[in-house]
Amino acid sequence: MRCAAILFVLITALAGHGARAGNNELGVLMMHGKGGSPEGYISELVAALRAKGYLVSAPALPWSKERIYDASYEDAMGEIDREVQSLRGKGAKLVVVGGHSLGANAALGYGALRGGVDGIIALAAAHSPESPNYAKRLGGEVSRARSLVASGKGKDRQRFSDLNQGTLVEVMASAEVYLSWMAPEGHAVMPRSAASFKAPTPLLFVNGLADRTASGKEAIFDKAPPHPKSRFVTVGSDHFGVPSVAIGEVTAWLDSLLQ
Questions:
Q1: Which of 35, 84, 91, 103 has the largest CB neighbor count within 10 A?
Q2: Which residues neighbour 99 within 8 Å (Cβ) at sequence distance 6 or greater?
Q3: Do residues 197 and 148 both lie within one domain?
Q4: 121 with 86, same domain?
């Protein structure tokens, strides 16, 4: 009877080990930055993740060069929902949502507004509508958008100013959509998103040493619910190079989720 019990324990342990997700059962949604595309700064990282055997999705999202801003922050969460479900439908047992720059902002927002994922990756996280710099340079545009909404013109597309790595750029958006991305009390505020994760979630947060817009560890990362697999990493890169320079850190961290 004792031998049979030991054999049962061994079989159960082996079965449990075999049930762990492999690389081809880990899905990764990797999101580009503001005004970018899947073929831009995240492309080398996406190729490396696919070479590792992960299921990877890298769509063009509402803040891409071709779409900016054709949908609200909240609607963008719905697009992320569909990508997550698509990865699950392809066999992903674990799903990680990640992004670069504004894509990282959206990944953090997804953790707060939706949750239900197995990890979040924030690479050179950016876009801070709550910051003094945004208030100084875009405050007038935010006020104009509020006035348009109040006067019943919230759905009319207008020209607005936006900030991309410290440079003023012009975008076309409805006032309602613009506010969803730019309002300092809106969902795009990363410190609040991190503090509002639906549940403790593994978070990989990567900053570049030469990224002049990088938020500090205390500003965002430390506000997320603690998790033993969460990591804050600094790499030798500017803002745009972080996804490529951090490939080793990203793949090692993803591997750790499978252990």
A1: 103
A2: 30, 31, 32, 33, 42, 105, 106, 107, 121, 122, 123
A3: no
A4: yes
Chain centre distance of CA 147: 31
Write out the two tokens for 231.
């990591």
DSSP helix, strand, coil percent of the chain (3-state; round to 5): 40, 20, 40
Angstrom distance (rounded) from CA 133 to CA 57: 33
Q: How far is CA 223 from each of CA 70, 200, 214, rounded to the nearest angstrom?
A: 30, 11, 16
Structural domain count, the chain? 2
With respect to residue 14, please indicate whether it lies within any of the assigned structural domains: no
Query: 10 Å Cβ neighbour count for 147?
Result: 12
Residue 126 near residue 188, CB atoms below 8 Å: no
Q: What's the domain range around 191?
A: 23-128+187-257
Tell me if the pTM is above 0.85.
Answer: yes
Residue 96 and residue 55 share a domain: yes
Phi-psi region of 237 (alpha: psi -120 to 50; beta: other; left: phi over 0): beta
Do 123 and 142 fall within a single domain?
no
| Chain segment 98-143, per-residue pLDDT in tens | 999 999 999 999 999 999 999 999 999 999 999 999 999 999 999 9
DSSP 8-state class, residue 195:
H
Whole-number Å distance between alpha carbons of 242 and 236: 8
| C-alpha to C-alpha distance for 115 and 251, rounded to whole angstroms | 22
